[in-house]
Structure formats: structure tokens, C-alpha cells
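Continuing the batch. This is chain 6 of the set; chains 1 through 5 are on the previous pages. Same settings as before, nothing changed between runs. Recording input and output for traceability.
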Amino acid sequence: MSVEADWFLRTFPDITTIEALLPDCNGVMRGKWLPRHKLEKVFQGEFKLPMTALSLDIWGRDVEELVFESGDADGVCRPIEGSLLPTPWASDDSYGQVMLSLYNAEGEPYLGDPRNVLKQVLGRFHNAGWRPVVAAELEFSLVHYDRRGIRHSCPVPAGHEPIGGNTYGVDVLQNNAAMLKEIREACEVQHIPFDGIVKESAPSQYEINMQHIDNPVLAADQIQMIKRLVKGVAARHGLIASFMAKPFENEAGNGMHVHCSVLDEQERNIFDDGTERGTELLRHAVAGCMQYMGESMAVYAPNFNSYRRFQPGAHAPTAPCWGYDNRTVSVRIPAGKSSARRLELRVAGADANPYLVYAALLSGIIEGIAQQSDPGEPIQGDGYVQAGQLLPLYLPEAIQLFQNSDFIARNLGKELQRIYSLSKAQENAEFRARISELEYTSYLERL
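Output for chain 6:
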């Protein structure tokens, strides 16, 4: 028996059900519930799922083209080290979970698995003797949703909309102290580096901060785990914790701001030159992020709703641009001590797959450095009005850029590029076929 499985079964004798979880290209958990006696088979490589499970659309439907051409062949699911843990928010103490990664029948990492794609991207950094250090700030909304529609979790008098969201309000955190305490305790049980929570600008919006770590694959694992954890704890309190990019029309959407620095073999930050400006390598990295941002937008903003975030005054950048300590740009260089000099990508939504976000960001960084790209002058003041060419603001445009991108094929791989493009095109076709309530109220009687 594997050491990890043996430890888990001895330590948690009351856990009878294991949730075997495989994150797909959307970041949605697929998999099965298994009895505890099947756990060892997972660690022996005997648990399988179709490889097309990774390319299901957001509703869990197959992309038929992929199913038929492959015969819907199985891949081997291997456990992710350290992910075999209890699920403390479950209805009782009988549930545990293990996260999986997918390999082909020959035992090689399947490169339609976003986790394996990220590991491949990291290989370029390791070959250069570099180690990326990353962290994320993850926004979410606490809401009620039923036949009356979506509503804020905060008390609102009937017929009234809240004015503002009490940004950084400590009293609002106190109002949800019991739930937030459970989130913190669950993070401790699951070894997730919770680094604090703040009230954000929309009435029901919060932000969880993750600690900086020098392993982007582990960081993405932890983002997947904390999203599931937050949703699970919120459900116990009768709420939906949503990472949907834009749940309310006239309020700020939910972003995932990603920070990145790079250490060399002597543990020195390659972006640090002892000044606020940073090194030329920092400028090259920023330029690479900007240069390939449009081609990566289908990753950073993966859903039909994602593009609702990119509205004037909605705190989401709409063009590739950069600046120092400026939250109106898409790539920000935060202020602080020079040893922590880093860049912050502010484009990605909370609905994005963290493996693919890190893969696209790191690919842009290393390509910008390799090409010694120039980002131009940093923007001072309002980046929304000073920036140049806009990013794709609709999903179809983003899909087209993604599927035709040599940058994506070169870095994320042709397999991921193809299955992701087909899945997203299928989702977009569904939205195009549906008639919205706004269309009826605008046209049905007037025309």
C-alpha cells in the first residue's frame, strides 16, 4: 500500500467516501465518489476516466467531434501528492478527497490536462535555472439564488439596491465571522496557505489572498481547492459562493489578480535591481505579457459572462498596458521593497482555470525575456483612457485568436489548444442560439 493512502486510512478511520476529483479545462471538478477500500487502487494507477472528460463544456456535455475521433478512450488518473485530505465542510465526517491528473495509456502526461500543460511550461524556467514565485488574490460573491433571481447576501430592504459595498469594511467581516472562521479552519485542515480576507467593492463581494509560493503547479492546485472549500463552507450557511466573473450588472466583477516574481539559482529575484524601477528582465517580462495578452484572453476570460467584467469603471483593464503601482492597468508593478519586485496580472477573472492562467502568464514572461521585448513607457494616471488597442471584449473573438495563435500552440501545446477551442466554441454556440429576456422586452411588441 502507498505511504500516503496508508497514512490517510489509519488517521481518518471514519472517512468512508473518497471524492476522486479531476479538474477539467473549465476548472470544474469531474470524477467519482469511491468507497475507502478503493483508495489504494487509485494510488496503484487503476482508476480511469475518459480523456474527453477534460474537454466537457461548462454544462458537462461532450464535444462529439473529440469523442468520435478518439473512440472515447480512457486515460489513467494519478493522485496529486498531498491532495488526499478530509473535506471538513461536508455534511458529516465521512468524506475525504483526492485530486487527480490525467496520463495516457503509455503512462505519459496527457497534454490536454491543464495541470500537465503548466508543468511543461515550467520546464522552460527550470532549464534556465529560474523558479517562478506566484500568488493570487481571488474575488468571489456571496449570494442567494432562487426563482426570484440572484440577490445579495447582505440585508437589503425590499425594492432598494445597496449603495456601495463598504470596501475594506471590517464590520461586514464581523457579520460573517462564523462562516469566515470555518473557511480559515478548513484551510488549515487542507494545508492551504490562506493569507487573509478583505471586503471588496461590490456589496456581497470578498477577496481571499493566497501566500506567495515558489511552485506554480501547487499554487494552482491550492486555488482549485480553496474555491471548492469556500463554496462548500458557504453552502453550510445557506449561501452560494460564486466565482462567476460578473454576477451583478452594475457592480464590479470577480477577478483573479496573479502576482509573479522569478528567483535564480542563488535565490535572487531577477526583477530586482535595488530600485523601484526593476531590472530590464522585468521590463521584458511585462512586454511579453502584454504582447500575448489578446491571444490568451480565452484563458483569462473563458466564459460568455467573463466579458461582462470589461466595462468602463468596472475595475477590469480593457487593453494591454502597464504601470507602477497603478490599478487601472492590466500589468501592474506593485510598490514595496525591491527584493519583492514583481508583476501583477489584473486581467484574469475568478472564473478562469488557474493552471491555464499561470501557464499563459509564465509563457508570456519567458517569451518576452527571450525576445528582449520592450513594453514602452509605463502609464501614469488613468490607464483606461490612455491605453491603445483594446483586448477582445467578446468570447467569439477571443476563441478565434486563441485557436489561431502560434504562441498558444508553441507554449500550451496543440492538443490543449484544440480541445479547449472546441469546447469554448460549443459553449458560445449555445449562448448564440438562446434569446434573452432583454430581447423580448426590447423587440417583441415594438417591431
